[in-house]
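User: Need the bound-state model for DGJ:
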Amino acid sequence: MNRYFPLCFLLLVFFSRPAQAQQNTKQIFIQTDKVTLGFTVGKNQKLYQSYLGEKLANSQDNGLLPATRHEAYVPAGTDNLFEPAIRMVHTDGNPSLELRYDKHTTQQQEENVTATAIHLKDPKYPVEVILHFNAFQKENIIKTWTEIRHKEKKPVVLSNFASAMLHFDAPNYWLSQFHGDWAGEMQQQESQLTSGIKIIDSKLGTRAHKYQSPTFLLALDKPAGENHGELIAGTLAWSGNFQFAFELDEQNSLRILAGMNPYASEYRLEPNKPFVTPAFIFTYSRTGKGQASRSFHRWARNYGILDGNKPRLTLLNNWEATFFDFDEKKLVGLFDGAAQLGVDLFLLDDGWFGNKYPRNDAKAGLGDWQENKTKLPSGIGYLVEEAEKKGVKFGIWLEPEMVNPKSELYEKHPDWILKLPNREEHYQRNQLVLDLINPKVQDFMYNLVDDLLTKNPKVAYIKWDSNRSLTNTYSPYLKTEQSKLYIDYVHSLYKVLGRIRQKYPHLPIMLCSGGGGRVDYGALPFFTEFWPSDNTDGLERVKIQWGYSNFFPAIAMSSHVTSWGKQSVKYRTDVAMMGKLGYDIQVSEFNEKDLQFSKQAVANYKRLSDVIWFGDQYRLVSPYDEDRAVLMYVSENKSKAVLFSYNLQTRHRDRFTQIRLEGLDPQKKYMVQETNLYPETKSSFTANGKTYSGDYLMKVGIAVSPTTALTSAVFEIVEKP
Ligand code: DGJ
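Assistant: Bound-state model below.
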């Protein structure tokens, strides 16, 4: 090696790096029960990240944390040589920003939530950047976002606006991302980061997720397992274009930037108007992915989804049973199926509206939200009543953001549609997106929901769909401000949803987006559940639900038994039962035994659902590691558990090892009982009907994996006095 190397290296580092904070002047800590994110104000008044990791046992030790060379929220235009968190061009054309610590405030928002705001100011320009952090103590979740304000005479232009910037120094970095497509959402992929930038993003406009999900796990040093390894798990609460940038520099330091995608989104910000980014929500774990997921699930139930601690409705949906081909009589007939199964609600899907252009297929009618008089001459009210007579509630499908060119709405309001002038219209599923940024369109959407619920106050559920992304897009309302479109679309959507929630705070609404396109914590506070994928094939669904389970709780994951997949009804039901159970199938086509099984399964689910919805989840064997998948839920007081076990297409009779259970109380005794058995079958597991100590179940374990391809088993594990 060249003998001058070390000196050259040092000089290079010296000249290419921003000035380091040499002496601490102030320290700020964002803390939960187990996690600390620390900042230091340098002598130069810049803010540096000093720590992100496990909370120190002695708070006095916090004072020892050294200032690092990592400026917390790096602005562009001065001495930064890497990807910036923020870039701004001032009114006078100056393309730089300097951020100096001004003050910070800490407030106890509620017993469990501490809110910290760190104010940074440019010494020369009237610009303020506020870094917000909400620390959720018990759930060990930190929610962070950025607020940008200025008092310049005219608008400034923002071209980067990260929600968060985090820094890491580890020997290696292992990134798990979740990618996919329609019917193949949330497939997990892990790779080691190499130098340079890895970007995970989306530019779909109406949704964040489909090809890439706005979620990731980042393991430090070595790949993390379910119960070991150091990692952070993060997600962006945003239903539009997002970007995560992972930049590994020449000193092996990693900076993560998370936020809205800056792509085609330069934002002219008026004076005195705050620009508030969506939140980046993350947790840190030194004990693997399972802990991180459980933290997310608990947080989601308490703060991230609507009514996360309340029970859900089981349902029968008609989409896959009828598609567009139904009328009043047929629907009323289907109610019998719902009643037979014992589910709570019947959900009428697409195809019930449009008269001049009836919605008899996906080509017409979208936007014309009046009952189709031929199919439903007696209207929605009649259906609600008929369902009620059979003891089931009634819910309905809407796709309020969209329009078919073959519709009265399109004819009446061509200026309400997002489409490029001087270009041909570009369709996905024969439809276009409404210009939601226009307040008149927002009113139209709000009124559509409000009118429906005012006329039919007994409608007990809505499925909110959104079946296309933005292409060839242009907002007639925004005129010369087109680069605001992607950001303002999502804000406008949240505005409408907020209005709906003000009037209907607890109505269950499912978030759907042509399969699982809109699963994020930006939208979920308005929704009680989401549709993970149109793919309900039992086998493929195991992996899809597994992927989502890293960040999203079972109570929000609508999982339906349909005719997709060649597996038995029992297998498909066992898979759907690990989420929020529903059906999307012709019940009348079940044979006698399948019907008997399904009725019993719904009853079993009602008995077990408290543990599935509100318990802690332990993923025991991943479908990515073996030809089987095993996971369990344990109630908070550890008195009950449910274990799901799936054989995945093994080609011969595999011998699977015993499984050590998790999350139980070692002191307690538990009876293990296989449940959800198909009529006239008996359990073949030796543990069935036996009682074990929690200690034994967790140290020795039991056999729970069926050996025949595509078979499954569900075990109920109950404390014995
Ligand atoms: C896409 C959804 O994912 C389906 O469940 C169904 O609601 C159709 N849209 C209806 O058009």
